[in-house]
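#data-curation
PF: Archiving a pair of folding outputs for the training set. Convention for this channel: one message per protein, sequence first, structure tokens after, nothing in between. First:
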Amino acid sequence: MISQKGSVNELFFCTFVSMKLKILLVEDDLNLGLVIADHLKLQNYEVVSAEDGAEGLVKFNEGRFNLCILDVMLPVLDGFSLAQDIRKINAEIPILFLTAKSMTEDKIKGFEAGGDDYLTKPFSIQEFELRVKALLRRSRPEFQEEVTNYSIGNYNYNIENQILTFNESEKTLTKKEAQILKILCKHKNQVISREVILKEVWGQDDYFVGRSLDVFITKLRKYFAQDQRIVISNLHGVGFKFEVPE
């Protein structure tokens, strides 16, 4: 007989599953990635896949996820580094590492990078499923509905449609403009590093994409010119601060 507490937990979890929980899967082994993704979809999860760490970080920024499943040995950006970058953006989302390594030192490194659980390959699909469910049960903030509209001074920004509105005028942003503004909105009135924005939007941090970021920031400043209280400050050597009146 299931206890009353157990029944509540099961109801709690089933309710969220019905909301189509979204999982980011970053795995460079195509065959294993397909097997895992197919199994998760059969469990009624929505799965977004990436094959390297840089692509995974870009997709993380583009969506809203309830869980990240990261292989450790990834090309371009390894799983530990990817987890650290994700933690700079979101301190709460559960992270499950998949790895062929079973050394205690590697597990410690994974937890220090921000991981919540660690599964060594090869693993049974039943154990994998149970760990996924356990992580989703323990998480809380990631089940909140995503904010789709931001009030920015005298402007309104609709993330879903990428439309910035001032009075009766509308400006439809490009994909990159929308991605950058979304990050700034999430961190309004806080300092956010250039590195975080570059990795989230472009998946890399180098001189050329850095110059592109500066161009987009200049464009965004012009879009907010009608409300002089709104400022995108450039803190040299640190990053940006999106100053918005509360």
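PF: Second:
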Amino acid sequence: MPEFSIDPDIRRARTLPSRFYTDARFFELSKERIFARTWQLVAGPELSATLTPVNLLPGFLDEPLLISQGDSSTACMSNVCTHRGKVLVEEPCEASLIRCGYHGRRFSLEGKFLSMPEFEGVEDFPSPDDDLRPVAFAERSGFRFASLDPISPFEDFITEPAAHITDLDPASLKFTGRREYRVHAHWALYCENYLEGFHIPYVHQALNKVVDYGTYTTETFRYSSLQTGFDEGGGVAGRYLFIFPNLMFNFYPWGISVNVVKPVSPAEIVVEYLTYVADETSFATGAGGDLDAVELEDEAVVESVQRGIRSRFYDRGRYSPTREQGTHHFHRLIAGFIG
């Protein structure tokens, strides 16, 4: 018996029940059933070191990973020594091999066990278990993604909207900054808000003057969705690519803003903002203008919803068939992954 289901017909469907957001059991289930089985952004085009440690969703999945860049390829693997479990690489560095600072075990840049002092006479050693565990890894236009136990290849998550990433020239993108916002809301509530333009006229007054709400579109794919906002002249003001469950790529005439939603607790998240500028002359204009103001407006709304869903008078809502296709699609994915 499934935990909950969402009718595929948006005209009949009801939203996720409030217990998904309020019951800590579902927060814990989402770690292995959703986040461990999907793809996370682990690095952008600015990655340069031979060895770069990554903590995959710290405080949540909290998995130490290591990105290793060789002369001709890049790999992702466990960053934990197979001897006694010490984290191997603590800071980005240049190196020709990986050496544990605890007892001297050494690995190649591909994670293959090389040597270990004082292990003479140990039977059945070394074995494949002494190599560093490889992690599923994908790269698109300089952006790197990893998955602990992918339900499907990365290509299935990007599919039709792939052109919006693969057409980019990583050399043209200048990384200009990282910001973090701490939001007192469930991770899914923040994503739901992102997945519909329905709220723009009511929440984002300045943005509403730039985006022609009447021509706003939403397309859904297997594990992603794409929203497009047009300006009054019919040009593209912004494209908003969501990759399930928590990655957001925002494409503007000046470049890209990337949002990563990181769960902390059932009622708290950290949203990481990464900015990549291709055209400095148009930076911070149009729909991609005052992103900080838009973020604060979104935070106020989702924090209010976080308080409201705990009401004994609320359980499930309905969808607008013309404006909430993205949220309906998102809820169906959650229900399918949770099982």
